[in-house]
Every structure is written in C-alpha cells, then in structure tokens.
C-alpha cells in the first residue's frame, strides 16, 4: 500500500509542478503582452485563474494525504495509543464521508450543471473547471483509505511486537 501512496504522491507532485510551471509561463506572457506589446492577452488571466483552481484542489488532496493539513492534535495527544488510533480512524472515515457527499457527489452535480456554460475568454465549458472538485475528492478518498489501512497495519505490527517481546521475556525467565 505504501508503494501505491508513493506513486500517487509522485503523480500529483508531477502534475502540480507542471501546472505551476505553466502558470509561470502564462504570467510572464501576460506581463510581456501588457507592458511590452501594449496589447494585453485576453486569455492569460482566465488561464491563470483556472490553473490556480486545479493546482489548489490537487495540492489540497496531496497535503491531506501526507497529513500536512491544519489539524488539532492536542486532543489526540492526550488519548491512550489505542484510543488515539480509533480517533484517527474515525476522523478518516468522517473525511471520506465528507469527500463522497460534498466533493464527489456535489462536484459531479456541479460539473453537470455547468457543462453548458462557457468561460468568457477561453470558451471552454465551465464544467471542466469544476471537475477539479470531484477529482480532488476521489484523491482524498484514496488517501484516506490508505491512511486507515496504514494505521490498522501499524497497530497490528505494534501489537505483534509486544506479544513477541512478552514471549521472549517469558521464555528467558521460564
């Protein structure tokens, strides 16, 4: 499962870096056309805005998957390891529910509603812009499943290690 997460991280990092590089080029083009050619590009502002939406949503999914998001840890830190594990799994399940209902289902509904609407400068369907919401939701769900799996496996390994330590102590003294 760690390999899947690693590949997902690498793919998201590549995509977001590519979009950011594209945004830099578009911003340079916008400045060049505005101040050198005295004829501002009509599409660059929209391209930047929509690229920022996509990179933000993908970046948010990446941050969530790697637990780099804002979190209130002081509650979990006060719990026993067993209760902390349960709490973290419960939080991941709640995140999955939110991602399914709001991001995926709500996002798909929004995409369907806005597919007929075109952007002002680019003329592309607005549904493609809003598609970032369900895509990000699916990524968040995937990361949550991986996080739950890793938490359970980690706990099993810790319990097994404690059992093995107990047996070795018993064998040494028995």
From TrEMBL:
Keyword Aminoacyl-tRNA synthetase: no
Residue intervals passing through the bilayer: 12-32, 47-64, 85-108, 128-149
One protein family per Pfam: DctQ
GO biological process, one term: C4-dicarboxylate transport
Subcellular location(s) of the protein: Cell inner membrane
GO molecular function: transmembrane transporter activity
Keyword Transmembrane helix: yes
InterPro entries: DctQ (IPR055348), TRAP_DctQ (IPR007387)
Domain Tripartite ATP-independent periplasmic transporters DctQ component: residue ranges: 23-152
Membrane topology: Multi-pass membrane protein
One annotated Gene Ontology cellular component of this protein: plasma membrane
Keywords from the UniProt entry: Cell inner membrane, Cell membrane, Membrane, Transmembrane, Transmembrane helix, Transport
Homology family: Belongs to the TRAP transporter small permease family.
Name of this protein: TRAP-type C4-dicarboxylate transport system, small permease component
The organism's taxonomic lineage, starting at the top: Bacteria, Bacillati, Bacillota, Bacilli, Bacillales
């Amino acid at each position: 499962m760690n390999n899947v997460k690693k590949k997902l991280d690498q793919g998201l990092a590549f995509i977001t870096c590519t979009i950011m590089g594209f945004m830099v080029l578009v911003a340079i083009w916008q400045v060049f056309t505005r101040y050198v050619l005295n004829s501002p590009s009509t599409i660059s502002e929209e391209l930047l805005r929509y690229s920022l939406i996509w990179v933000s949503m993908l970046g948010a999914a990446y941050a969530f998957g790697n637990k780099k998001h804002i979190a209130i840890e002081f509650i979990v830190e006060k719990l026993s390891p067993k209760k902390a594990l349960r709490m973290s799994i419960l939080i991941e399940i709640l995140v999955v529910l939110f991602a399914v209902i709001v991001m995926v289902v709500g996002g798909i509904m929004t995409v369907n509603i806005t597919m007929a609407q075109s952007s002002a400068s680019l003329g592309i369907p607005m549904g493609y812009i809003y598609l970032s919401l369900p895509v990000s939701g699916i990524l968040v769900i995937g990361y949550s499943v991986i996080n739950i799996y890793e938490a359970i496996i980690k706990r099993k390994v810790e319990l097994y290690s404690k059992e093995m330590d107990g047996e070795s102590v018993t064998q040494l003294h028995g």
